[in-house]
Amino acid sequence: MDKLFVELEHCYGINKIKKEFDFSKCNTFVIYAPNGVMKTSFAKTFDDYSNKSESKDQVFGREPYKREVLDKNNANLDEDSIFVIKSYIDTSYTSDDLSLLLVRNELRESYEQVLKTLDEEKKNVVKVLAANTKSPDCEKEINHTFSDLGDNFFEILRVLTDEISGSKYRPYRFRYNHVFGNEVVRKFVEKNRDNLQVYHDKYFDILSNSDDFFSADGTFGTAQASEIAEAVSGDAFFKAGHSISLKNSDPVSSSEGFQTIINEQINKVVDSPELREQFDKIDKALRPKNMQPLRTIIDDDKTLLLELLNYEEFQKNYWKSHLSGILESVEPFNELYAKKRGEIEKIITEAENESEEWKNTISTFEKRFTSLPFKVKPVNTKDSVLGLDKPELGIEFIDQETGESKSMPRDFLSNNILSQGEKRAFYLLNIIFEIRARLLKDKETLFVIDDIADSFDYKNKYAIVEYLKDLSKEPKFYSIILTHNFDFYRTVQSRLLGFSNMKNCLIASRSSNVIELESIEKKGLINPFKNWKNKISGAESFGDDELKFVLASIPFVRNIIEYTKDEDSREFNILTHLLHVKEANIGRDIKSTDNLQYFDLTECFNLIFDEGTISLPEANVVESLYKIADSIAASDEGVMKLEDKVVLAMAIRLKAESHVLSKISLTSSIESNQTIELIEKYKSKFKTKAAYRDNIETLEEVNIMTPENIHLNSFMYEPILDMSICELKDLYGKVNNFK
Predict the structure, then answer these.
(1) Which H/E stretch holds residue 381?
(2) What is the pLDDT of residues 51-106, one digit of tens each?
(3) What backbone phi and psi angles, to 5 degrees, belong to 88?
């Protein structure tokens, strides 16, 4: 892959971009893209390309949509040869099987999707069961009740469905916890087992002598008779012309008549002196207050005492009865489970095959990434759907003070135990495995890497850079690294590419809706302050272009004087008069801010530049500053220039302070934090006046945005670059239009 040709139009936020990436001398490019320019859209477009899906503008629907990714032969790049490493995104789906499965990300995502689909369908079944039984945890109770079928809810439901299909179960309308999962009821059964046994025997003895109305073995007893009576209540059956012919009695043609016969026969059984005597003994045990729910249930149907004798079987029949009533929900769930079972088995088998490679990956991870409060290791756990052994990531936390270690359960990620940076570390572990898999397959790959170092501390950020450096040495691996963090960008440039490959260090900017990718060399950002010094020292005359560099250098020169000379020196205070609005200091021969000339700065610049030959013109600095700032603000050029941002920030602050000073009176000079102090006084005076509300909001923006853009030095100018110049242009417009 010596060359890569990319042309995109209307791909997400990218209106147009056209670029040739020449990998012939270096197989890595790094692109600095300020927020909102192209970084995420670029990565998403390549991800779509690799997945053979479209990348159209989803907000405005702009056309024509174009996406060309071509190799040196002008042929479409193989989709499988692209691997996008996304900026970490926390997963929104959590369950006991959150993605700790040690398998390639593609398979893990498939595994999670299968689990999610089954989990959603399971919730639908459980929701209906919970509504009917009022059990707070139907899944747990069914697993416990039918533990002889295993510990897999999915499999238990499948077996039970086969068993209850076509079978008839009596309905149970009482709450599950009033009888089952209830230690009080269980103790009652054990304590009164003898009485229940006698009651049971007496009941069936009476049935056998019931004028042959009931069956002696109880297959047709009082409960079954009551069910028939309920089924024909309301007379609809009889109004249709039907009648019921009972043994040893005339045919019955009304529900009332049928209920009368049934009640007579039931009463002969349940109110028989022999059964009543036994019931009275049980009744005494049901009198305590905590037995009232069970007593109410038995008063409604005394035959339930017969089922209590075999408590475990009664519990199973209860669930079978309720499941038989919702087969229309259970059967589709079982069909889905049967379909997804094979997919899960295949993925787990694949994970087992890859487990050894994961051990090597974990070793690489732990060697490179340090200062994490945990260790990772492969462990075996049970899959919740099939109950199969599966290799997962185990977590062991280490107490940094005592050295004590503690293993964490697999659902620790969903409990928010880890910080975002630590979660990103796990994400990175997965990425390392994906890369290792491609390396073992000797697969030529283009990696598009989207801000992989976000949220890491500096130590581990450098570890990432070193890993990317190793990646760049692989002959079949090519990388396009995207970032909106200029500090990370410079680190990659210096450690990975060096000065010999500066053409591969690109800056993204937007101009007339076209994204331009230009070398950092053209932007003058390798050493901007040295570049400014050369522009000033080598100037034969000073037009606005040259004066812009003088203005931008003022904060820098002032900082150097502060660090190396004396912050109370005359030179330091002259430059301070151009960062804040100041009155003239007659005693030190320093003019007011409005009256300072460029010529007055000559001694300050020569003190630091050590040239002795710089001679600045006699032109008013503030007037020139505002003129140049107006020009920058009016330009629609989106090219990032550090000097433009500094000049705008200086102009914004001076205009803001001038406005404040025109509205308030100072009784004494402000020695430090002048902008903050002035704004506070302004707010105190006008905070209750609605006409000043917009002005106060603008001044607060000035307070937030300008300090970092003015107090800069050669080591920390990254925050200025990361801020969009559009924000500064917008703020400059606001301070020009104070009400």
Answers:
(1) strand 374-382
(2) 899 888 766 777 878 999 999 999 999 999 999 988 765 443 333 334 466 777 77
(3) -55, 135
Positive or negative torsion for Cα 528, 533, 539, 544: positive
Q: What is the pLDDT of residues 446-495, one digit of tens each?
A: 999 998 877 676 777 788 888 888 888 899 999 999 998 888 888 888 88
Contact 64, 8 (CB under 8 A): no
Sign of the torsion angle spanned by Cα atoms 326, 331, 332, 337: positive
Per-residue pLDDT tens over the stretch 202-215: 666 656 666 656 66
Alpha helices in 232-272 (DSSP H): 236-239, 255-270
Only one residue has tokens 């039918």, namely 146
Q: What is the largest CA-CA distance in the chain?
A: 132
- Burial grade of 117 (CB within 10 A; 0-12, 13-18, 19 or more): middle
Helix, strand or coil, per DSSP, at residue 83: strand
- Rounded to whole angstroms, the Cα distance separating 340 from 342 reads 6
385 near 344, Cβ under 8 Å?
A: yes
Element (H, E) at 514: strand 514-519
Q: Is the dihedral of CA 172, 174, 177, 180 positive or negative?
A: negative
Contacts of 680 (CB under 8 A, 6+ apart): none
Burial status of residue 99 (CB atoms within 10 A of its CB: 0-12, 13-18, 19 or more):
buried
Q: Which of 186, 127, 468, 156 is nearest to 312 (CA)?
A: 186
Alpha-carbon gap, residue 479 to 23, rounded angstroms: 9
635: which 2 tokens? 């330009």
Between the alpha carbon of residue 268 and those of residues 168, 278, 297, the distances in Å are: 26, 15, 21
Q: For residue 55, what are its two tokens?
A: 């990348």
Residue of 554, 542, 527 whose CA lies nearest to 614: 542
**Distance between CA atoms of 632 and 736, rounded to whole angstroms?**
14
pLDDT > 70: percent of the chain: 80
Give me the residue label for tokens 């490679």.
357
- Tell me the per-residue pLDDT of 588-646, one tens digit each, with 9 for 90 and over: 899 999 999 999 999 999 888 866 678 899 999 999 999 999 999 998 765 567 889 88
Taking CA 164 as the corner, what is the angle to CA 162 and CA 170, rounded to the nearest 5 degrees?
175
> What does the domain layout of the chain look like in residue ranges?
3-85+443-523, 176-324, 528-735
Query: How many beta carbons lie within 10 A of that of residue 15, not counting itself?
Result: 19
Residue with tokens 């007593």: 295
Q: Compute CA 67 distance to the chain's CA centroid, rounded to the nearest angstrom.
A: 28
The partner residues of 477 in beta bridges, in order of sequence, read 445
Q: Are 321 and 172 in contact (CB under 8 A)?
A: yes
Instruction: Please give the DSSP secondary-structure letter assigned to residue 494.
Output: I
What's the DSSP call for residue 88?
A: P
In single-letter form, the type of residue at position 723 comes to M
pLDDT at 193 over 80: yes
* Per-residue pLDDT reduced to its tens digit, 336-364: 988 988 888 888 888 777 777 777 877 87
- Topology of domain 3-85+443-523, per CATH? Rossmann fold (3.40.50)
